[in-house]
Amino acid sequence: MAKNDPYAALRIKEFNIFLLVRFALVFGWSMQFIVIEWQVYSLTKDPLYLGLVGLMEIIPAFSMALFAGHIVDQKEKRNLFALCIAAFSLISLGLFFLTWDRIVGDWETQTILIFIYILVFFGGFLRSFFGPTIFSLIALIVPKKIYPNAATWSSSTWKAATVSGALFAGFSIDWIGVHTTLCIVFALVTLALGVTFFIKKKPILNPNIGESVKESLKVGLRFVFSNKAILGALSLDMIAVLFGGAVALLSVFAQDILHVGSKGFGILNASVSIGSILTMFITTYLPVNKNAGKKLLISIFGFGICIIIFGFSELFWLSVLALFFSGVTDGVSMVIRQTILQIKTPDHMRGRVASVNSMFVGSSNELGAFESGIAAKILGPSVAVIFGGVMTLITVAGIGIKNKTLRELDLTVDIEEFEKEDV
């Protein structure tokens, strides 16, 4: 493979299969998230209930994350991935039944909400295993020297699935309704499960099989908190996602501020991911490894500015534009963060490090949704979004000043070392 080959990871057959599985899974997951948000707000007309969706997912996702990382490092990754997908298909099936008038037509709204929250809760439990499993599996499919390229393509696929899933869900709700849309979600997840078995089982690289949970978690946490590059990147993204989570309130903006309906709702959601995926594809040709720390800080600062503009906007086109560029900046930060994690993490600790990542960043999406719901209830949706953007800017400035290791991080040296090892 030629040096700086933008298609290096795509030349590996199993990685292409992995991308297909991830696309189908995330496409369905993205659709399901949009449908749940739309359905809950349609039933209640109260942004607080949207916040509760995030809370119900973050409680198990956060509390189980470290234990999930331990399990992932102890188990074979392909079968564990398949098990997670199978469990997720049952959640999708349950939501399909909860939107079927023949079943819930006579139910009270609060009863329907309770069952939705229960399934979301179990989805959060499941999510604590997905992140570490996927992160570990990538490293077992591709050689070390193309980790950055594989991370970029994996993130791009995730964003491509998110954008198309969000866009399709918005139109699908309008065309065929919530119930049939969830049937499509179930079919996609089932497809992902079948294709997963075309990936071969992978060796377990952890030399400490049978290690106690307590000792395993202690080692993992010690590694993360002693590595300033990883800790800085995770902290930066966590605060940005926590306070810059305008996406959680898009259903409120679509219905009550911009008045654009379900189609506009889908476009607003999709505009974020379109910006991200275009940026990620560009980074396959123009890697961001040199001066990665500075680029990470600049990108998240730009993200905060975009969120502030969105909060002020009452024009649909300006809101779409602001969200698009928030996606552009988020795409850069995501590629850099994933590359830092892949390069700086030892093989036998990938599950635990990825679980800490899910606690910092993944769970902050749901916690951010809860924070946004509470803030919107107290301050109003526009002020809540603006406040989040300002907090993001303050966070970037603080971490940029205090964390010199992250600020001066350059990943090209690490990649050159991997290339020497392969030679």
Automatic annotation (TrEMBL):
<dbReference type="InterPro" id="IPR036259">
    <property type="entry name" value="MFS_trans_sf"/>
</dbReference>
<feature type="transmembrane region" description="Helical">
    <location>
        <begin position="153"/>
        <end position="173"/>
    </location>
</feature>
<feature type="transmembrane region" description="Helical">
    <location>
        <begin position="300"/>
        <end position="325"/>
    </location>
</feature>
<feature type="transmembrane region" description="Helical">
    <location>
        <begin position="378"/>
        <end position="401"/>
    </location>
</feature>
<feature type="transmembrane region" description="Helical">
    <location>
        <begin position="230"/>
        <end position="254"/>
    </location>
</feature>
<feature type="transmembrane region" description="Helical">
    <location>
        <begin position="266"/>
        <end position="288"/>
    </location>
</feature>
<dbReference type="GO" id="GO:0022857">
    <property type="term" value="F:transmembrane transporter activity"/>
</dbReference>
<feature type="transmembrane region" description="Helical">
    <location>
        <begin position="179"/>
        <end position="199"/>
    </location>
</feature>
<dbReference type="InterPro" id="IPR011701">
    <property type="entry name" value="MFS"/>
</dbReference>
<feature type="transmembrane region" description="Helical">
    <location>
        <begin position="48"/>
        <end position="68"/>
    </location>
</feature>
<keyword id="KW-0812">Transmembrane</keyword>
<keyword id="KW-0472">Membrane</keyword>
<feature type="transmembrane region" description="Helical">
    <location>
        <begin position="112"/>
        <end position="141"/>
    </location>
</feature>
<protein>
    <submittedName>
        <fullName>Putative MFS family arabinose efflux permease</fullName>
    </submittedName>
</protein>
<keyword id="KW-0813">Transport</keyword>
<feature type="transmembrane region" description="Helical">
    <location>
        <begin position="15"/>
        <end position="36"/>
    </location>
</feature>
<feature type="transmembrane region" description="Helical">
    <location>
        <begin position="80"/>
        <end position="100"/>
    </location>
</feature>
<keyword id="KW-1133">Transmembrane helix</keyword>
<dbReference type="GO" id="GO:0005886">
    <property type="term" value="C:plasma membrane"/>
</dbReference>
<keyword id="KW-1003">Cell membrane</keyword>
<dbReference type="Pfam" id="PF07690">
    <property type="entry name" value="MFS_1"/>
</dbReference>
